[in-house]
């Protein structure tokens, strides 16, 4: 029995809407347009030896294409930074009783580095990221040895997409506290994002030496190995990340991508299912499930997965394109026309001309079939 289009018109799933709407991004995945090149250290005169100067290659992770008919899912590599800022609770030192009263009054009104750090944390909780950055900067200026100030500054910069200042701050945190594992892990992630795989590996390995149970360090190492097409070791790293970061959906997702590269479809499906169980709004994971089921001619399961992908991100064009393919297979050409028009418009709005052209060609086929007598 065929699937009706109306059954899947859930929460405005395939309703026409403005194609130029901003596309949802994965957490901690803000992309910036920077010059192409490699992430290289350069000596700079300052209180620390090296300032890492970044120039980034824009790298959109291309997922496995299961059929020439299906577009690959566009899933940027996460820089898996925990945005839970580090909180320190240290009592303020008592004031000396020896200086004159005027000096004591001045000291009592002066903010310490810890005061600025706590002010920054409060600003983050209030959603005032720029105020937090200013406060963390002040804390780091007052006490350059206060590693949490540099680390939280790095996280705040990363949240605003400022990758270069973020990497600098993480590096300063490692210098202030050479045993601060999360700072090494996040610096390794920045180096990975900058395409300097060797240095990224060194810092990630150092993070895991300091804390073998640091889940996002295992995850970043898995991404590095995935990029090197070393799937066996990447999967091993993702499994460790899952063990120590049970609530993160990205490790099972990327483990699924590695299984697809190995042709292990059943294991890939299990991994994608685990990802959407952790995060029910993971469009790329649903899309890959839909793609697998489409190739296996399980059209009902495929259409349901594409529907959930579009529900998770209504501006995700691949979900509508996949649904259009299923509708064509079901000979529901009118429904195919509607979703393919939407896919084409979204591809155009997101400046993806190749897949806009593919969607237009498939749309014309669906329109021709729709007008043929049946």
How would you describe this protein?
By secondary structure, the protein is an all-alpha fold. It is built from 16 helices and 2 strands. The chain has helices at 101-109, 113-125, 129-142, 147-159, 163-176, 181-193, 197-210, 215-227, 231-244, 250-261, 265-278, 283-295, 299-312, 317-329, 333-349, 353-371; strands at residues 40-43, 50-53. A two-stranded antiparallel ribbon has the order 1-2. The longest helix is centred in the last third of the chain and has 19 residues, at 353-371.
Q: Which helices and strands, and how do they pair?
A:
Blueprint: E1 40-43, E2 50-53, H1 101-109, H2 113-125, H3 129-142, H4 147-159, H5 163-176, H6 181-193, H7 197-210, H8 215-227, H9 231-244, H10 250-261, H11 265-278, H12 283-295, H13 299-312, H14 317-329, H15 333-349, H16 353-371
Antiparallel strand pairs: 1-2
How far is the first residue's CA from the last residue's CA? 17 Å
Compute the gyration radius: what is it? 25 Å
Tell me roughly what share of residues is in helical segments. 55-70%
Uncertain ranges:
1-69, 74-108
Secondary structure: number of strands: 2
What's the main sheet like? 2 strands, antiparallel
């Amino acid at each position: 029995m065929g699937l009706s289009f109306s059954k899947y018109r859930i929460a405005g799933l395939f309703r026409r809407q403005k194609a130029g709407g901003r596309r949802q991004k994965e957490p901690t995945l803000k992309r910036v347009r920077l010059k192409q090149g490699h992430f290289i250290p350069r000596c700079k005169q300052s209180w620390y030896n090296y300032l890492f100067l970044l120039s980034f290659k824009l790298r959109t992770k291309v997922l496995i294409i299961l059929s020439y008919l299906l577009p690959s899912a566009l899933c940027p590599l996460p820089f898996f930074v925990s945005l839970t800022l580090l909180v320190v609770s240290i009592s303020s030192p008592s004031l000396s009783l020896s200086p004159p009263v005027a000096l004591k009054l001045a000291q009592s009104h002066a903010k310490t580095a810890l005061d600025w750090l706590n002010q920054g944390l409060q600003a983050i909780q209030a959603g005032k990221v720029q105020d937090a950055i200013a406060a963390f900067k002040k804390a780091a200026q007052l006490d350059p040895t206060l590693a949490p100030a540099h680390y939280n500054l790095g996280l705040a910069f990363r949240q605003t997409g400022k990758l270069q200042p973020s990497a600098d701050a993480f590096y300063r945190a490692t210098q202030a506290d050479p045993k601060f594992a999360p700072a090494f892990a996040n610096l390794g992630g920045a180096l990975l994002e900058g395409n300097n795989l060797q240095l990224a590996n060194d810092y990630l390995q150092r993070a895991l030496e300091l804390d073998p149970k640091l889940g996002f360090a295992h995850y970043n190492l898995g991404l590095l190995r995935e990029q090197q097409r070393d799937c066996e070791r990447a999967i091993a790293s993702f499994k460790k990340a899952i063990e120590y970061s049970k609530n993160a959906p990205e490790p099972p997702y990327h483990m699924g991508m590695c299984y697809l590269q190995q042709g292990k479809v059943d294991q890939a499906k299990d991994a994608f299912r685990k990802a959407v169980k952790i995060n029910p709004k993971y469009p790329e994971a649903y899309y890959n499930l839909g793609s697998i089921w489409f190739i296996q001619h399980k059209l009902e399961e495929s259409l349901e997965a594409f529907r959930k992908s579009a529900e998770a991100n209504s501006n995700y064009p691949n979900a509508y394109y996949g649904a259009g393919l299923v509708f064509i297979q079901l000979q529901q050409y009118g429904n195919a026309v509607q979703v393919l028009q939407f896919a084409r418009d979204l591809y155009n709005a997101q400046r993806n001309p190749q897949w806009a052209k593919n969607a237009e060609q498939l749309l014309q086929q669906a329109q021709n079939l729709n007008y043929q007598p049946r």
